[in-house]
Amino acid sequence: MLNQNQIPLLDALKANAARIHAPFYTPGHKLGEGISQPLADLLGKAVFRADLTELADLDNLFAPQGVIQEAQQLAAAAFGASQTWFLVNGSTCGIEAAILATCGMGDKIILPRNVHSSAIAALILSGAYPIFLNPEYDPVLDIAHSITPNTLQSALQKHPDAKAVLTVYPTYYGVCGDLSAIANITHQYNIPLLVDEAHGAHFAFHPELPTPALAAGADLTVQSIHKVLGAMTQASMLHVQGNRIDGDRISKALQLLQSTSPSYLLLASLDAARQQMALHGKMLMSRTLQLAQEARTRISQIPGLSVLEMPRLAESPGFVALDKTRLTVTVSGLGLTGFEADEILDEKLGVTAEFASLQHLTFIISLGNTPADIEQLVQGFNTLAKEYRRGNLTLKNQVWQNLDRTLDYALQLSPREAFFAVSEILPLIQTNKRICAEIVCPYPPGIPVLMPGEVITESVLEYLQQIQAIGGFISGCNDISLKSLKVVK
Fold this sequence. Notes:
The chain has helices at 8-18, 37-43, 46-49, 67-79, 90-102, 117-126, 149-158, 179-188, 225-228, 247-257, 264-300, 338-348, 371-387, 394-402, 415-420, 458-469; strands at 83-87, 108-112, 129-133, 137-138, 143-144, 164-168, 175-176, 193-196, 220-223, 236-240, 306-307, 321-322, 326-330, 355-356, 360-364, 423-427, 441-442, 474-475, 484-488. With 489 residues, the protein is of the alpha+beta class. It has a seven-stranded mixed sheet with strand order 1-10-9-8-6-2-3, sandwiched between helices. Strands 11-13-15-14 form a four-stranded antiparallel sheet. α1 packs across α11 (264-300), α5 crosses α10 and α11 (264-300) crosses α13 (371-387). The protein starts with 7 loop residues before the first helix and ends with a strand. Mean pLDDT is 93; it is low at 393-405.
């Protein structure tokens, strides 16, 4: 029986950091002695004593037999997996490893069009061919939800040779689709269901949160422990269950994608975050949910504002549950775009959102937030509504109607073929109907609007230009000013 009180990796790191010895191994700062003074002043010396390498007592991430293996076994038990891998290159490398482990060159994988850019990178690395599904879309709020079971069923009937299905659960907005039904349909074809659960690592620790992906039937899930729990940035986990995925292929894929000099600070933070949630997760999530509910209730009462809630009139197959710790506030009723409201709140009112979109601001409320944070958030919105409200929405409504995501997509080449093809850079106005050779996405949330292999259309170009004109940031492409694009020659 595993003891969730234990923190084997953290304890080993602590012991090695305290050991008196002469270090003749990496890293070069040698227990902090060589660290620049400004950095030491910011972080303190103690953190650098623990910035160690793969010493004998600290195990090896790629062939764990000691404390890393023990820590991963404890994590698997806490999160409901049969096997868990620690990730130091974020959920990005986990998504890439999942696709590399299940799909080879030319293999089909079914996935939603609103996947994270890491999935597109995985298509380039693996050579897999994407079968994209349009997620359910709310044209009023301009929010994409999950793919639906019916959409997946139709895709699998047309492509029964697909090797895997990947879905996003929850979305960046905290929306969850019917994952149990999606898992059942996927397994009818005896292929694995891969889940990008980057924003759902906390689901396993409270009954009022959505069902965790593994409990809903997923074969593999990737979670950003750093996004919603207490690990350091980049620290994530990959979990598997069942026998549809070869664990050895996961390990080999991760050896390609992760650093051979992994940060033990990140690894130890995963061990500590697991222990924290295993012992105190329900209490911490109860407090977090209470804070989130207070914010939802008070903000929804401010004139001109509304918050994203579960659909009331009819069940939506792409929206069957909502993570109530994720708060999305619609600000269009104030005559402001989300980008404008975000700038005001951040620069003038001391409130920083996770991300802004055309009509909304989205906030992550986690175990690290305090009642004072919630009070500042609510007061920030009160001030925004009273002092920055505008009256005329005609122009903005026209913009939103033009950006209702009815965009045209057509994949002409596989992402890998287009990425490695001979390319040229052309002025934006000359790229219509050409094949894109790079990833182009507003960020966050990092969902590509164009990817290698897709035909560039007029509607997509207009969308990108208008997003940029009202304050959005375009990333992923060579020219972030969007004056030019890279296309297949």
